[in-house]
Each structure stands twice: as structure tokens, then as C-alpha cells.
Amino acid sequence: MFPFVGPDQTRPLATSITSRLAEVFNQRCEVNRRAATSGCVINTCGWVKGSGYQALVHAASAFEVDAAIVLDQERLYNELKRDLPHFVKTALLPKSGGAVERSKDFRRESRDEKIREYFYGFRGSFYPHAFDVRFSDVRIFKVGAPTIPDSCLPLGMSQEDNQLKLVPVQPGRDLVHHLLSVSTADSPEDNLIETSVAGFIVVTSVDVERQLFTVLSPAPRPLPKSILLIMDIRFMDLK
Questions:
Q1: What is the pLDDT of residues 108-121, one digit of tens each?
Q2: Domains of the chain with bracketed CATH
Q3: What is the 3-state secondary structure (H, E, C) of the chain?
Q4: Residue 42 has pLDDT above 90, yes or no
């Protein structure tokens, strides 16, 4: 689960998840002949400079790709030809006529629509549940501690380790409209960053006095697990 809007916010986390995804895919190929024969298609994002480019190269390495297709980016094509292993076939193709770059507003609206579809289904075919969750029944964490100077880091810890650190979150009113992922882990020691999630909920209101918050969930109460990861993504349920 990647809790941020874009991979530029914490590349170490994106790199870690990509490596884990490749590991799981390789395990599947070992037991599934169809998967091993067909392989997979990796659809990357349009961030192709700086850390974004490094993330692309890492994904190619982790998945051991044998072909890279670049659409309408001659500079990216030349860089990948230079940096990827010689056995990787790299091709440059023109983009389809009429294709345009999506604006930030369009991407944000598309993300909101997909979240709404997760809870309400296509054309409102699902009926999500709303119920209260007590503060004492869950443990909430966020990924990444605040950036501090290298000289202030504990001995042996790097900034990358700091960005992957789990930080406990005390429920409060600032939790409203945040998406939370429900981790399948039984404890924070189970490597929450690489553990799969059971699903997602969104906080619709918080009552600090009563020590509970109300959530919108695709499934009825209770929550399947008690460990939640807060996401930077927000969703306002206007239905």
C-alpha cells in the first residue's frame, strides 16, 4: 500500500514496495505456468526525471524486464538504452493522435471518481456502511518521520530509514476525510509497509469527547483488523 498521492514524496517507500511486488510476482510465476509464460506489463507513471527516472530503472531491474516501450519521449528512450542491461529491448513509439497530457485537476478528479466507485460501485451499485470506531479499538500509523538533519539522526540510521519509519498517530479532528488502509498485519512488527491490506475506509467525522470516529466502509462492522495506516489522500463523501 502506497499512502501518498505521488511517488516523488517518498521514493524509498516506492522502491521498497516495487521490490516486494516483484518478489511476489516471481513467487507466483514459480507455481503458475500461465503467469510464468505470459509475464506482466508494467504501466509506469509519467514522472521520468530525477527520482522518477531512478524509480523507472529500479522497477526494470526488480522485475528483470526484457522489453521497455517508450511513448514519444526520445530523451527517455536514449537514457534507458544507456542505463538498462544490453539484453533489454528498448523501443520508441509515437503516441496516438489526439493523446494529451492530463492536467493536475483532471488527475485529481479521476482519483476522486475511482475512490467513490470503490465505495459506491459503478453507477451506485454498491451500498457502503457507516459505523463508529472507538479510538481504543484501533492503532493508527503513518509512514515516514519528519525530516531532520543527518547530524541529529540516531547512530546508524539514514534519511532513507527515517522516511520508512512508522509513526503512531493520535486520532483527532484532522483525521476527517482521510483515507485509511486496513492492514492485515497483527502487530506493527509485521513489517506494515510490505504487508497487504484488507481494504480501505474513509473517516467522515471525529468525536473527540466520545473518543470515536465514524467511517465509511465497503463492508459492515467490525473492522477485520485493528491496525490502520493513514494516507495523504482525502475524499469528501458528498452522497
A1: 899 999 999 999 99
A2: 7-93 (3.40.50.300), 104-234 (2.40.30.330)
A3: CCCCCCHHHCHHHHHHHHHHHHHHHHHHHHHCHHHHHHCCCCCCCCCCCCHHHHHHHHHHHHCCCCEEEEECCHHHHHHHHHHCCCCCEEEEECCCCCCCCCCHHHHHHHHHHHHHHHHHCCCCCCCCEEEEEEHHHCEEEEECCCCCCHHHCCCCCCHHHHHCCEEEECCCHHHCCEEEEEECCCCHHHCCCCCCEEEEEEEEEEECCCCEEEEEECCCCCCCCCEEEEEEEECCCCC
A4: yes
